[in-house]
Specification:
7 strands; binds S-adenosylmethionine; 263 residues; Rossmann fold; alpha/beta
Length: 263
């Protein structure tokens, strides 16, 4: 399974955002998304200045460069060499130093400690998301913050049905599914780069798993991490999180982000 996922990201590095200027990263394209995600930490962008930051599963490196531009010392790891090559180019383009490295979150036993750890859209593509989480959480300093993003079991329900339908008609192969999406959803050839990467990730991924806020609270608890925030907004009490996650199903909020602080 790891091999399939690696091959997939060697072919479709993600997200390959069309970043031309610093402003695209800091305020336009990426800045708006990052603002919502980082709200879950309860800290502003100045928090990252001088911090040791680890991005686990950094893809094409936009977030690593974003943190580096905010004055962080950043290390980005990923299993895809093609993604890391994009990421290195991006860091060079903006003249920031980021330590990029090929590493698997399921094998990480690093002794190095980080003040901030960020891993969005990665763990649910591994065969053991909890193990991946525990591995990176061990590298979090006391008082440090970790942010993870996962597919929501409830929010992604309709999309899962759609994926199953595509697999039924097109088969399990990535190429066949991409061709099916081109023919039946887009009605045209997909543009190489960001569009192809987005569509592949959404419809033709070889493996994904689905998670709940309660499950992440359990992972946090086992690793001495206190929850700080969630996006979309969600209470952490039993009833409140159940109700909110039911709403995510209707609203098709397929992805959620949670941050916690090591105590
Ligand atoms: C959907 S992309 C997310 C990229 C980036 N985190 C972002 O939010 O833009 C998932 C990334 O996780 C990487 N990945 C998947 N499994 C991994 C693993 N076991 N260890 C490290 N990286 C992994 C993939 O190669 C891919 O670059």
């Amino acid at each position: 399974m790891r091999r399939d996922v690696k091959e997939f990201y060697e072919q479709y590095p993600y997200p390959q955002l069309p970043v031309k200027k610093k402003a695209d990263l800091l305020s336009k394209l990426h800045g708006n998304v990052m603002r919502e995600i980082l709200e879950t930490t309860g800290r502003g962008a100045s928090y990252f200045s001088g911090k040791n930051v680890l991005e686990a599963g950094c893809g094409t490196g936009e977030k690593c460069v974003y943190f580096a531009l905010h004055g962080a010392h950043v290390r980005g790891v990923d299993i895809s060499n093609a993604s890391l090559a994009h990421a290195r180019k991006l860091a060079d383009k903006f003249n920031v130093k980021v330590g990029f490295e090929n590493a698997d979150v399921l094998q990480m036993h690093g002794k190095e400690k980080f003040g901030y750890i960020y891993s969005l859209g990665v763990l649910h593509h591994t065969e053991n998301p909890k193990k991946g989480f525990c591995n990176i959480a061990k590298m979090l300093k006391k008082g440090g913050i970790i942010t993870i993003g996962l597919y929501s079991a409830s929010g992604r329900l309709l999309h899962r049905m759609h994926r199953a339908q595509i697999a039924l008609f097109a088969g399990k192969g990535t190429k066949e599914r991409m061709q099916y999406v081109e023919r039946n959803i887009y009605g045209r050839k997909l543009r190489a780069g960001v569009e192809e990467a987005y569509v592949a990730d959404k419809y033709a991924h070889p493996y994904e798993s689905y998670h709940t806020v309660g499950e992440v609270l359990g992972w946090f608890g086992e690793n001495g991490i206190k929850p700080v925030g969630c996006h979309p907004k969600c209470g952490f009490g039993f009833l409140s999180r159940k109700i909110t996650q039911m709403e995510w199903m209707a609203q098709r909020k397929t992805f959620f982000v949670m941050s916690g602080r090591r105590i």
